[in-house]
Write a structure and sequence with these properties.
This protein is mostly beta strands. It has one helix spanning 358-364; strands spanning 10-14, 17-25, 28-45, 58-67, 75-79, 85-89, 92-96, 98-102, 107-111, 114-119, 163-168, 171-174, 178-182, 192-196, 199-203, 205-210, 227-243, 249-263, 268-272, 279-286, 311-318, 321-327, 330-346, 366-380, 383-400, 404-414, 419-432, 435-448, 454-456, 462-465. A hairpin with a 2-residue loop joins strand 6 and strand 7. 35% of the residues are buried.
């Protein structure tokens, strides 16, 4: 095929039947249409020293039609019947019943259902999706019901497999720089689904922006393209799991957004909540708090499942946006827009709680409300398989539990110190056996969750007994 540059690329074509339409003009003959049927295979012939092996284009299908093969206006239609048509090369593998390629616009598009597998070199991209999954479907309930089981992903543990898988049920288009996938919810809740390493995401619209332009017909680069930004819109649902060095479950998380932008190199993300309901961000982790499990705290074990004490569940509902970073099990997240947070011990990785049952969270843990929430989570200094968390609630902050209630301009929870600090016009009310025990007011109050001791700002403060 003649290209716009001085390079001429040759293709080896095999099939059961081949037909050509040739145009003769002024003594010259040009192939106008080439049609091949029956187990068709087209392989790009490029000297190996000019490109990486996985960059060579190979096309297979039941029927392939090429228009204007010797001009820059080449178009290719690849059809599959019993099996999908396949386009692979330039670091991607594309499968669908119909694949279209246009050289002049450097586009590939699929009208209908399809699947794409792409190699990703970026180490930071390893934090985002998971490869080689056992097929799963999106949970039917958008908002998780109280203590509704949500099974962990049943995926292969392959730390070396860094491929990105995307499936869709409506259409796909790729212009060499941006991949756009469209989906429409079906009876199983499937739309656009992407998987890479430890995370899985569903949405109606997904765009993957690459760090460089890929030229399908002229690209000889040995540099594999990498995802630079991933953008999702409409009913975005994410869930993930992290394993420790012995492949035991270390943490699980899920989220519901309206829009999401994820910058791969920096692991920085920005998300907005859905228009018709609060956004949700939830985590379940092994806790480094001593005895932080429902069974050890003498609390109800409604659906206890085995000896998995020491698990904590944190769920945040917000009305504006969330931004932050995820890197190597560490989280630094800022949430804005009247935030409600449930933080409680659970007995199983499957235990979740919804916003419609915060009373249960209050009995078993804490309810935190504020205008803005900052979450910092990091590995425990004494055990890398555990984590410790700090929560900072800003603006009209309050915390409620079966043991105490408090409010202040700022409330800080430090898990490692098992301490809550109330700063700015602070008030705290403690309870014994469900009855009011003591009320304290001061500019600054520190409350020890283990000993129940209260420390006041010495300059001012008042403690009122029952």
């Amino acid at each position: 095929l003649g290209l716009q540059s001085q390079t001429t690329v040759q293709y080896a074509i095999t099939g059961k039947q081949m037909s050509m339409q040739v145009v003769h003009h002024d003594g010259n003959s040009n192939v106008e249409t080439l049609a091949v049927e029956g187990n068709v295979r087209i392989v790009e012939k490029i000297p190996l020293e000019n490109t990486a092996n996985n960059a060579i284009i190979e096309i297979t299908g039941e029927e392939i039609t090429v228009w204007n093969p010797s001009s820059p206006e080449t178009q290719i239609l690849i059809l599959g019947k019993q099996q999908d048509a396949v386009f692979q090369g330039r670091g991607v593998e594309l499968r669908a019943k119909e694949i279209n390629i246009a050289r002049s616009s450097n586009k590939i598009w699929v009208p209908g259902v399809g699947r794409l597998i792409a190699n990703t070199n970026s180490e930071s991209a390893r934090q985002y999706f998971q490869a080689n999954p056992t097929p799963t479907t999106q949970p039917a309930n958008k908002t998780l019901n109280p203590l509704t089981p949500l099974s962990p992903l049943k995926t292969a543990n392959s730390a070396k497999d860094n491929r990105l898988l995307v499936e869709w049920n409506e259409s796909m288009i790729f212009n060499g720089k941006v991949l756009q996938f469209l989906g429409k919810p079906d009876k199983n809740g499937n739309r656009v689904r992407a998987i890479h390493l430890d995370k899985e995401i569903w949405c109606d619209v997904m765009e993957i922006h690459l760090n460089r332009l890929v030229l399908f017909f002229e690209d000889k680069s040995n540099i594999k393209p990498e995802a630079e930004m991933i953008q999702c819109a409409n009913n975005v649902f994410i869930r993930s799991r992290e394993l420790d060095e012995s492949y035991q479950l270390k943490s699980m998380s899920s989220a519901e957004f309206g829009k999401l932008r994820f910058y791969v190199a920096s692991n920085y993300f920005v998300a907005e909540g859905p228009n018709d309901r609060p956004g949700v961000l939830s985590f379940t982790n092994r806790s480094s708090e001593e005895g932080f499990s429902a069974s050890k705290m003498g609390l109800p074990e409604t659906i206890a499942k085995g000896d998995e004490g020491g698990l904590r569940f944190l769920s945040v509902w917000f009305h504006d946006h969330v931004q932050g970073t995820f890197l190597g099990g560490q989280r630094n997240v800022e949430i804005v827009g009247r935030v409600q947070t449930a933080y409680l011990p659970v007995d199983s990785w499957d235990d979740h709680i919804g916003i419609d049952n915060l009373n249960l969270a209050r009995k078993r843990g804490y309810i935190l409300e504020c205008d803005q929430l900052h979450i910092v989570e990091m590995p425990d200094v004494n055990n890398a398989n555990l984590s410790t968390m700090e929560l900072t609630a800003l603006g009209n902050a309050s915390i409620d539990s079966s043991k105490f209630y408090g409010k202040a301009r700022t409330i800080k929870y430090n898990q490692a110190k098992t301490q809550v600090t109330f700063d700015g016009n602070a008030k705290i009310l403690t309870f014994e056996d469900g009855k009011k025990s003591e009320q304290t007011a001061a500019e600054l109050i520190q409350y020890d969750l283990t000993t129940k001791a209260i420390r006041l700002n010495q300059s001012q403060g008042i403690r009122i007994g029952q």
